[in-house]
Amino acid sequence: xxxxxxxxxxxxxxxxxxxxxxxxxxxxxxxxxxxxxxxxxxxxxxxxxxxxxxxxxxxxxxxxxxxxxxxxxxxxxxxxxxxxxxxxxxxxxxxxxxxxxxxxxxxxxxxxxxxxxxxxxxxxxxxxxxxxxxxxxxxxxxxxxxx
Length: 147
Hints:
Blueprint: E1 5-7, E2 12-15, E3 18-21, H1 25-75, E4 82-90, E5 93-103, H2 107-112, E6 117-128, E7 131-142
Antiparallel strand pairs: 1-2, 2-3, 4-5, 5-6, 6-7
């Protein structure tokens, strides 16, 4: 006969007189269930992170397009009142843009006799998934003749 015997009821394995601690099958299954549930949560967080990163990248592209359109309007000098629009394709995205230059009339400015201020507004629209997204950026420009 051998001196090796297993005592499953105590969770210990005896091997030649030495006792070694071991896990029961039920404990291993419970541990695997806990790890599986934790991993599902981590995978969900990772998917959310990927979606948010993609959304931030698209919003950055729209912001850069708006800044580009404002810079183009500034490059022409003191712009006339007008409205422009167009479409920019970037990969699978389609950005619709519109720039509008309008005179700025504020009662506070009338009292100081300041004129020649214009507002430049840029609107960017795009479809992201099932949602329609919108970004508006505006700035002001003064006639260089203002003193």
